[in-house]
Amino acid sequence: MKLSSEWLLTDSPETKGQALAGRAWRMWLALLGNPLAITGLVIVVALVLVSAFAPWIAPYSPIGQDLENRLLPPSWAHWMGTDELGRDIFSRVVYGSRLTLMIVLLVAAISAPVGLILGAISGYFGGWVDKFIMGVTDIFLSMPKLIMALAFVAALGPGIENAIIAIAITAWPAYARIARAETLTFRKAEFIDAIKLQGASPWRIIFNHVLPLCTSSMIVRVTLDMAGIILTAAGLGFLGLGAQPPLPEWGAMISRGRNFILDQWWVATMPGFAIIVVSLGFCFLGDGLRDILDPKNEGKS
Amino acid sequence: MLAYFAKRIGMMVVTLFLIITLTFFLMHAIPGGPFTSEKMLAPEIEEALNAKYGLNDPLWVQYLNYLKGIITLDLGPSFKYPGIRVNDLILDGLPVTAKTGFLALLCVAALGIPLGILAALNQNKWQDTAVMMLATVGVAIPSYVVATVALYIFALQLNLVPTFGLDDWRGYILPVAALSGFWLSFIARLSRSSLLEVLGQDYIVTAKAKGLHPLSILFKHGLRNALIPIVTVLGPVVANLLTGSFVIEQIFALPGIGRHFVLSISNRDYTTIMGITIFYAAFLMVMILIVDILYMLLDPRIKLADRNK
Predict the structure, then answer these.
(1) Range of the domain at B207
(2) Any domain includes B54
(3) Which pLDDT tens digit goes with each residue over A34-59?
(4) What's B121's domain CATH number?
(5) pTM, whole model, 2 decimals?
(6) What ipTM was estimated for this complex?
(7) Is the minimum CB–CB distance between B158 and chain A shorter than 8 Å?
(8) Given an 8 Å threshold on Cβ–Cβ distance, is A143 in contact with B284?
(9) Residue B18 belongs to a domain
(10) Long-range pairs for B160-168: beta carbons < 8 A, 24 or more residues apart
């Protein structure tokens, strides 16, 4: 069978693989019809590529100091100028993308599965399990995120790993709530009853039949949250509690660049610009994915 | 009704108790005491300090003492500023934080909701596009970038506002603008989508068919229902406006609670960290309770007990 658009868009797929490929293809077509979402996708892909190929893209070392050339304005040799230690800002921004991507991916990889599983368990079992898990999420949700992240950073000590852990700890309760709400909507559905009658264990039902149905709303939510994660991480860096020098973390770079904002505007502006572009990218992509995946919006536009 | 509030307040006390316990043991799990620093203190001095603040007692005695303090609304002494209590630090910063936060909240409500309405009423026209563009950018740009750029342009280049300090009203403009930017955009987006959803309902069509005045439809039937999701997020928004000010207070050198909090983290002033964390948690919980009451006033159909189902 050759991969053609008829094969992908057929109304009666013959195999599960074909159905899945067809659905992915339809989503891709829908995404193509949304210029903002494509812009977002391009930015996110660019972020991934830049961080993957950072050593080849960056003309200088991100931490190599060159005190003779400190605070140079943007030029051909230094596209974004140099900072107070003569480090090339462009190279630092390029390497900084690795930190940003790492933070975002790790936070998502820790908090989304934890929230998803706890929420599904809570919604599926109900009763005291539900009460307990939701009680815990309520406690976490009743703390302002930044305060909680700061409190954990205070306990764990400043540093990028601890910033990641702190942000992940603050992020999972929201996912648990979504997964629980989703689970509640189909926990009494007939297909769940059918699987139960076949003798499937609760865990099998949760992992094989409930979780897959929660993932699409979760993906949307996580993508939308990524901008927030980047901003929180950069905020911690800005306050000096995230990545520590000499790591080229964008928030920390802005924070130090502010000392020179009067005469050397580029030191703080360039990493600020990078943060804005990347978080806008995730916002656009998340909005686009939501329009495609959210059944509420179907047929609206 | 009364029973419901009694139950809610009981839950609040339990949650607060758990948060206090959690922060207490979290802070005490940290290796190194509060007086461990680069400058090695003489062992006798450290011993005396530990004795003075009761740090030699068993952990559970310290915990009980701390709880006892909290019941009497005493958050304990600051470890870094001799003779100053955490209560004093909070009371010292509260007016500044509360004032900027309140002004930002006014901005968010007075601009965000009308902008959302404007966008919803002109769906897919230029007004809508413009508001949504602004709102998306507003959500994506971090407040410290806005604040830094605004400071550079308006305070340093144009000299329109002071760079720091709150001596006159112009000092508030930039901090409040930077603080409210994100939530203003957020509320504008939310009010737009919420109003659009309500305006598509059958009862709005009925109201139109009855020949009601468009303004009456908008205010009596549309907005009243569209406001419900907005009121829901208002509690957390208030808390976030007050905590979001951490970064803003740092940039504009405002002497608020946020600055004490950030300083206390770099100073490893554990009692202050705990005290401010607990203060904020209690504050947020009270806000959420108030929102629940507002909820009931807005929509009598909402049965309080069912809110989370």
Answers:
(1) 99-256
(2) no
(3) 888 899 999 999 999 999 998 898 88
(4) 1.10.3720.10
(5) 0.80
(6) 0.74
(7) no
(8) yes
(9) no
(10) B163/B252, B164/B252, B164/B253, B164/B254, B165/B253, B166/B96, B166/B99, B166/B254
